[in-house]
Design goal:
CATH superfamily of chain B: MetI-like
Radius of gyration of chain A: 18 Å
Mean pLDDT of chain B: 93
Oligomer: heterodimer
CATH topology of chain B: MetI-like fold
Strand content of chain A: 25-35%
CATH topology of the largest domain in chain A: Rossmann fold
Largest interface: A-B, 31 and 24 residues
CATH superfamily of the largest domain in chain A: P-loop containing nucleotide triphosphate hydrolases
Structural class of chain B: mainly alpha
Number of strands of chain B: 0
Radius of gyration of chain B: 20 Å
Number of domains of chain A: 2
Chain lengths: ~240, ~220
Amino acid sequence: MSAIVEVKNLSKVFLSKDGKVHALTDINLAVEEKSIFGIIGMSGAGKSTLVRCFNFLERPTEGEVRVEGKDLSVLTHKELLAMRTDIGMIFQNFNLLMQKNVIENVMLPLRITGTKREDAAKRARELLAIVGLEEKERAYPSQLSGGQMQRVAIARALANRPKILLCDEATSALDPQTTQSILALLKRINGEFGITVIIITHEMAVVREICDRVAVIEKGRLEKTGSVKEVLGDVE
Amino acid sequence: MWSDAVIRMIGEGIIESLYMTAFSTLFGYVLGMPWGIALVVSGKEGIHPSALLYRILDVLANIMRSIPFLILLILLLPFTRLIVGTTIGSTATIVPLTISAAPMIARMVESSLAEVDRGVVEAAESMGAGVLFVIRHVLLVEARISLIAGATISFATVLGYSAMAGVVGGGGLGDIAIRYGYYRYQTDIMIVTVALLVLLVQIFQWLGNHLALTLDRRKK
């Protein structure tokens, strides 16, 4: 299997009032196509910055990010925007439009790619069926539970049939039971559609539950990478 | 005292005040809306930071906002004559009212858009949305309740300013209040016109609040 995301010698430095902050230092990793890859670390370790380098929401200070073999740094702005439609992303706080109903939220990325309204609505209904919320299409996010909101966000992230789904602490705001159901959904999406899932988390249990491979990040450096068993050991 | 002529004059005053306020607020938004959007977009935390553009728009808004309205009114007299052909009457008053409303509206729009959750903007960017898409489909949509509240405040403020233009023969209720109440000591007419101004502000504030409440999807 080939690597769908490849990171080489990546460093990210933020300039602040007190000087330079080294958020990430010399990161090297490869995520295999169609796998579920975990990146685990404590808060402030740099994992959110790292995942934002995968779609260039953050530009690395040094090093290279290749997605599907393409070096993101050489893309024009337009090409980068097009590339991002191939990479779905979900967040800890769901980040839905609170003034738009469920189906309009799911249709948002389809409007970016210029999909016709009827086709977009049809696709959005398919997606809502996949995440089990077909009855909620007219509801507003404020009427939904956290788990339901994350399902809407997942449907939205899948709208343009991406090859990669980035999950930034996607279950951290959810209770354990809802976390289980969201993880099961991610696993199903990975299996059924062959979407590579990259999970950023601080919860060991999340990694054990669904990841194939895992990278441990600490103070901006990659400590270990390997299979879940190698890296985290057996459950004691 | 309350002859038909006075009642007709006050009626016309109401219409003139609304005419000045409506058009000045409208033109104020034509200038202030893109100005406010540009402030947010070019700001440090914006979706397309540009220190130079932000600095220019920011300083310009500060300068224009610091000039007292009455002084601005007088400073703009030549400009008003150039555009409208006269400096007296309600149509002429629209010019300085618009110029003074625009930077205030720009700040209103800026603060409304700045309230939009950065995470939602980031989500749209992660989908491949460009700057214009984010403005139209994320910032303006998510901020609309706050924008309506801001528009209500702007309208009431412009109405207040329009009354001040009465000093230089600007027309409307303020003009009547100054001419009859101040110059001729007809306190009753002044009280009635002021009461009418209060009533107008109340009505528009109520309409604005009602509209914002009906359109807000965050509750229930």
